[in-house]
Design goal:
about 400 residues, 3 domains, 2 strands, about 60% helix, disordered N terminus
Length: about 400
């Protein structure tokens, strides 16, 4: 009888394991009912599923349970599935979802620098909610910033940089800006991501003059980077950080071997150039190169190659960028010379452009034909072409 009783007790203990002791580093402590709920959720995974059911992830009351399991489980399957569920269960600004709290941040910090890439990727996916929250903790942002600066792999640094891109404007301080500046000299995908983040955070940079000056110097240097995606993106970001000196570099990059960079340079001149730059832009009216590129060279945490597509804003071809800028500069010159009431440029009307983002090369060629006729008629009256020294950086 004693043996049978012991066997019964043993069998019961195998079926109903003792609850995991509360995690002292988390504020949340599950009740007995919540423990049973977590057992039910884990049982679904052990039945062959990789992730928790979507309907379970959307139940607001399960949010803390997923966080708790992600923070306390020793099973890789449960941890990754819980992190994945946290990405659905929480919302930074949604009233229908649970708001991320300190426990969420603590659990994510635990996994963001894991040795398991799948776990890190799931953690970064879930990190978008606390990073976007208006009142998240500085400690969590500092940890993401540290990983962007010091992460032990390009994949980790890229994931951290992309996470920082989601940070609200009023939460971007000098430490975040420093992380971005440190990464602009890294691999091309990281440099482009850091440049785009600096573009978004230009207001924060302007409030820290030494960092803004350093950012300008780095961006200026990157216009000569080996990767065309970096060169072109640097030209765009330079304007947003302050256009001083940009016109000369943009003129030089009109002869860049990559059409994306030529297109961006032509587009930038509409903002920082003058009527004399029409002389430099018109030769590009027959440049049908696609003003786009793909930045590559780094693997993401999931092993896939990081591909960042870049294109000149609003246009498909270099010729479109050049013609649009020439047209704009001609109109600006008309206003400067004759004033807003004038009905003509120096002599003759400026032709209209017949292309738009949905038209093809035929419309571009027709616009180029019209603009060339106008240019040949007006070139003697335009300001002289910039001297060679005005084109060099």
């Amino acid at each position: 009888m004693l043996v049978l009783a012991c066997a019964g007790v043993l069998g019961f203990s195998l079926l109903k394991p003792d609850p995991v002791p509360p995690a002292r580093w988390l504020d949340f402590t599950p009740t007995a009912a919540q423990e049973r709920k977590m057992q039910e959720l884990r049982a679904k995974l052990h039945a062959g599923e990789r992730y928790f059911p979507r309907e379970a992830q959307r139940e607001r009351e399960n949010a803390q349970l997923f966080t708790y399991m992600a923070g306390t489980s020793d099973e890789e399957l449960v941890v990754i599935a819980s992190l994945d569920a946290m990405g659905t269960a929480y919302g930074a600004r949604s009233t229908r979802k649970a708001a991320p709290d300190r426990d969420v941040e603590r659990v994510l910090v635990k996994h963001l620098s894991s040795k398991n890439p799948a776990r890190m990727q799931a953690a970064f996916e879930a990190a978008r909610h606390p990073i976007m929250a208006a009142h998240g903790s500085d400690e969590f942002v500092d940890e993401v910033s540290r990983l962007a600066r010091e992460g032990d792999s390009p994949a980790l640094r890229l994931a951290a940089l992309e996470t920082l891109l989601r940070l609200p404007q009023d939460r971007r301080g000098p430490r975040i800006l420093r992380a971005l500046l440190d990464r602009t000299s890294d691999e091309a995908p990281l440099a482009v991501t850091a440049l785009l983040a600096m573009q978004v955070q230009r207001q924060a940079l302007s409030e820290v003059p030494p960092l803004l000056e350093e950012a300008r110097q780095k961006v200026s240097a990157l216009t000569s980077a080996s990767d065309p995606g970096v060169r072109g993106t640097a030209l765009e970001v330079w304007f947003d950080l302050g256009p001083e000196g940009l016109a000369r570099v943009a003129r030089q990059r009109l002869a860049d071997p990559d059409p994306y960079v030529r297109g961006v340079a032509a587009g930038v001149l509409a903002k920082v150039g003058g009527a004399s730059d029409i002389h430099l832009l018109m030769p590009l009216a027959s440049d049908h190169g696609e003003a786009r590129t793909v930045v590559r060279g780094v693997r993401r945490l999931d092993g896939q190659e990081a591909l960042i597509s870049r294109k000149a804003r609003g246009y498909q071809f270099v010729a479109e960028c050049a013609l649009s800028s020439a047209h704009w500069l001609a109109q600006s010159a008309m206003l400067q010379v004759y004033g807003p009431a004038a009905g003509e440029m120096l002599r003759g009307d400026i032709p209209s452009m017949t292309f738009n983002p949905t038209t093809g090369i035929a419309a571009v060629e027709e616009s180029a034909r019209r603009m060339r006729l106008w240019y040949e008629d007006q070139r003697a009256f335009l300001p002289r072409e910039p001297r060679q020294e005005e084109r060099a950086p």
